């Protein structure tokens, strides 16, 4: 008879369990190493021009020009040329223009005429009088009406309005000195944003900043600046894509609005707007925060002053930001997100479908992921 030590079966079980645990730990370590290697690969400096050449379809006009312009953009802005950053820019350009420096907008002529008629109605000017004024010859010899009827791109439309405002008194009366075409170029960047961020622009401008926005190099440079050239503690690129569409720090601010809502019980639109910009009046978010004034030990003026930092990373350093999250998380009983995709419906005469900022961000993020997989 073979003697089996008492509890021997238990010892054997523990040994086997130990082996199993050791195997599991090794597997976890292997996965961790794999993730680390992937992260290192993603953060590895890349040759910008080479990535562009590999990514942009052969059908795109002047691919080498795209490659050189984006390489110059990254170097002049001193941006880290990681695959993620390069692919993020390309993803936005693909989404906004399909890699066209001056993309065709379907039905733009009708959109333009509608905008002119709306302005005329607002100014109480008979539309017939406006249409008659548009029949005079423009600087290129054709009438403004002819040019408007055949307009296909925002660059062409912007040039028409520039001529109309500069040459015809009626144009100045309708539009003042403000050209109604507000965005353009391969990344559909705001002209106003570009005009405020010209420092470090690496090319000599032959004309205005507006005209530069409608070029490939200018559209890429200002668009990249808007997308990447600001500090943000986001955990994923998708939140920068949302900011690109909705405004700097919109994703951070939408998460803050969510925290304010949790702390106060006030339902808020998570649109990223912490104040009514351009107005001293208090908006819904500011009014909600005021309800916490006593708990925060802050006056309405203090609250307003700190909410005004919502367009920079400095908001996160404020007492308001820290204390609102503390109160909200205490009430919720769990950590709250510091980033949320804003819930904004996209509004533009060029948009005919029911689209949102979240849709835009996810669409661009899919393109970024495809670009990275390709490289």
Brief synopsis:
With 375 residues, the protein is mostly helical. Helix 4 crosses helix 19.
What would your notes on this structure say?
This protein is mainly α. Among the domains are: 108-184, no CATH class; 245-332, no CATH class. 59% of the residues lie in helices and 1% in strands. A two-stranded antiparallel sheet has the order 1-2. A hairpin with a 4-residue loop joins strand 1 (183-184) and strand 2 (189-190). It is flat, with a radius of gyration of 27 Å. The model is unreliable at 1-7 and 13-17 (pLDDT under 50).
Give the SSE layout.
Layout: H1 8-43, H2 48-55, H3 63-76, H4 83-97, H5 108-122, H6 127-133, H7 144-150, H8 154-167, H9 169-175, E1 183-184, E2 189-190, H10 191-195, H11 209-213, H12 216-228, H13 238-246, H14 250-264, H15 284-290, H16 293-296, H17 300-307, H18 319-332, H19 357-374
Antiparallel strand pairs: 1-2
Helix pairs in contact: 2-3, 2-4, 3-12, 4-12, 4-19, 8-9, 13-19, 14-18
Query: Termini distance?
Result: 67 Å
How many beta-strand runs? 2
Main pleated-sheet profile: 2 strands, antiparallel
* Low-confidence regions: 1-7, 13-17
| Average pLDDT number | 88
The level of helicity is 55-70%
Any descriptors?
59% helix; 375 residues; single chain; mainly alpha
């Amino acid at each position: 008879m073979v003697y089996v030590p008492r509890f021997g079966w238990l010892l054997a079980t523990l040994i086997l369990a130990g082996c199993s645990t050791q195997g599991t730990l090794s597997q976890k370590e292997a996965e961790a190493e794999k993730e680390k290697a992937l992260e290192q690969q993603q953060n590895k400096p890349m040759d910008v021009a080479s990535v562009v050449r590999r990514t942009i379809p052969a059908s795109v006009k002047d691919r080498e020009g795209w490659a050189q312009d984006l390489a110059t953009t990254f170097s002049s802005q001193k941006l880290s040329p990681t695959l993620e950053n390069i692919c993020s820019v390309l993803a936005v350009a693909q989404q906004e223009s399909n890699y066209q420096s001056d993309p065709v907008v379907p039905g733009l002529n009708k959109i333009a005429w509608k905008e002119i008629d709306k302005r005329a109605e607002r100014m109480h000017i008979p539309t017939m009088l406006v249409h008659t004024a548009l029949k005079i010859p423009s600087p290129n010899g054709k009438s403004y009406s002819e040019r408007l009827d055949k307009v296909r791109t925002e660059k062409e439309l912007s040039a028409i309005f520039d001529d109309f405002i500069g040459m015809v008194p009626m144009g100045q009366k309708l539009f003042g000195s403000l050209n109604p075409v507000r965005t353009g170029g391969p990344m559909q960047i705001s002209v106003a944003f570009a005009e405020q961020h010209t420092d470090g622009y690496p090319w000599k401008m032959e004309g205005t900043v507006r005209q530069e926005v409608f070029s490939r190099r200018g559209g890429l440079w200002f668009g990249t600046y808007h997308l990447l050239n600001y500090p943000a503690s986001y955990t994923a690129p998708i939140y920068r894509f949302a900011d690109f569409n909705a405004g700097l720090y919109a994703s951070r601010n939408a998460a803050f609005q969510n925290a304010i809502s949790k702390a106060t019980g006030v339902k808020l639109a998570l649109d990223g707007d912490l104040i009514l910009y351009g107005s001293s009046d208090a908006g819904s978010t500011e009014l909600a925060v005021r309800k916490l004034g006593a708990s925060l030990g802050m006056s309405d003026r203090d609250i307003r002053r700190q909410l005004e930092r919502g367009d920079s990373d400095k908001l996160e350093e404020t007492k308001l930001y820290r204390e609102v999250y503390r109160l909200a998380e205490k009430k919720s009983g769990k950590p709250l997100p510091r980033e949320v995709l804003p819930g904004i419906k996209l509004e533009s005469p060029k948009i005919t479908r029911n689209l949102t900022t979240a849709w835009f961000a996810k669409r661009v993020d899919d393109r970024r992921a495809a670009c990275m997989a390709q490289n």
